[in-house]
Design a protein that fits this description.
This protein is an alpha/beta fold and 246 residues long. It folds into 2 domains: 139 residues, Rossmann fold, CATH 3.40.50; 72 residues, SIR2/SIRT2 'Small Domain'. The chain contains 10 helices and 9 strands. The protein binds adenosine-5-diphosphoribose. Adenosine-5-diphosphoribose (APR) binds next to helix 1. The site of adenosine-5-diphosphoribose has 23 residues, from helix 1.
C-alpha cells in the first residue's frame, strides 16, 4: 500500500532543458529571442502566419534529434512501477515524455508534432513543415493549417480532466516550471484545496515557491530520479519527504 494513491505531476520546460531544449524565461530563453506576441498568439498568426510557421518549423527541426533525459525516464519508471495512479500534465509541446515511456499524459499546451486545421478543427500527427499554402487533408481548405499548440489567449486542452484529477489527487509535484503562466500556475492551489501534499522540483524557487509544502532545488536530471526513487520506496513510511529543501 503506497502512501499516496493519486499523484498529479505538472511539468514545464525545465524538465527538457538538459535534453538540449531551451526554456522560455531563463537567460537566453526563447522569449529573450522572440516576441511571444508575434509568434505565440492567434493575433500574431493572423498578422503574419509565415513568421509563426517559421518559428514552429525551426522548433520542429530543433526537436528532431532530442532524446529524453534521466528525469523523463524516471517519471516513466514511476508510472510503470508505482502502485497508485500517476498522471503527468505537461506544458511542454515536445514528445519526450512519450519517448521515455509515459502513457498517462495530458499535453495541456498541445503538441509540436501535430497540426490543426483552423477551418474544420481536424487534428492530426504532422512531422513535416507547415506553410500557408497547405491544403487541409480533411476539409480541403487552403491556408488554415496551424501548429496544434495552445497560444497565449487560447484555452489549454483537457482542462476538465485536469481539474478533476487535481481535485482527487493526494500528491502534486511541479517540475521545471517558472510558475508564471496560468492556469498551470494555479494547479498547486487546486491541489492544496484537495488536501494534497505539494512538492516543487526546480532549478531554483519558482514564482509560486512559497505555495508548496516541500521543495527540492537542483537540476531535474538529479533531483527527479532521486525523488522518484524515494517515492517508489515510500510505501512503508507515512510522510517520507515533508518540508525538506536540498
Ligand atoms: N532542471 C530543473 N529546472 C530547470 C532546469 C533544469 N535543468 N533548467 C531550468 N529550469 C527551470 C527554471 O529555473 C524555470 O523556473 O525551469 C523553469 C522554466 O520556466 P519557463 O521558461 O517559464 O518555462 P515554463 O514554466 O514551462 O513555461 C510555461 O509558458 O511560454 C509559455 O507555453 C509556454 O508552456 C510554456 C509556458
Amino acid at each position: 500500500m503506497s502512501t499516496y494513491q493519486r499523484i498529479v505531476i505538472l511539468t514545464g520546460a525545465g524538465l527538457s532543458a538538459e535534453s538540449g531544449l531551451g526554456t522560455f524565461r531563463d537567460k537566453d530563453g526563447l522569449w529573450s529571442k522572440y516576441d511571444l506576441m508575434e509568434v505565440a498568439t492567434p493575433e500574431g498568426f493572423a498578422r503574419n502566419p509565415e513568421k509563426v510557421h517559421a518559428f514552429y518549423n525551426l522548433r520542429r527541426n530543433m526537436h528532431a534529434n532530442v532524446v529524453p533525459n534521466a528525469a523523463h525516464r524516471a517519471l516513466a519508471r514511476l508510472e510503470q512501477n508505482y502502485s497508485g495512479e500517476v498522471w503527468i500534465v505537461t506544458q511542454n509541446i515536445d514528445e519526450l515524455h512519450e519517448s521515455a515511456g509515459s502513457h498517462c499524459l495530458i499535453h495541456m499546451h498541445g503538441e509540436l508534432y501535430k497540426a490543426l486545421c483552423a477551418h474544420c478543427g481536424d487534428r492530426r500527427p504532422w512531422r513535416d513543415e507547415l506553410s500557408t499554402d497547405l491544403v487541409c487533408p480533411s476539409c480541403k481548405a487552403i491556408g488554415g493549417m496551424r501548429p496544434d499548440v495552445v497560444w497565449f489567449g487560447e484555452m489549454p486542452y483537457q482542462m476538465d480532466g485536469i481539474v478533476e484529477r487535481l481535485a482527487a489527487c493526494d500528491l502534486f509535484i511541479s517540475i521545471g516550471t517558472s510558475g508564471t503562466v496560468y492556469p498551470a500556475a494555479d494547479f498547486v492551489m487546486d491541489a492544496r484545496q484537495a488536501g494534497a501534499h505539494t512538492v516543487e522540483l526546480n532549478l531554483e524557487p519558482s514564482e509560486g515557491a512559497s505555495l508548496f509544502a516541500e521543495a527540492h532545488h537542483g537540476k531535474a536530471t538529479e533531483i527527479v530520479p532521486t525523488f522518484v526513487d524515494r517515492l517508489l520506496n515510500s510505501s512503508q513510511s507515512a510522510h517520507p519527504f515533508e518540508n525538506r529543501d536540498t
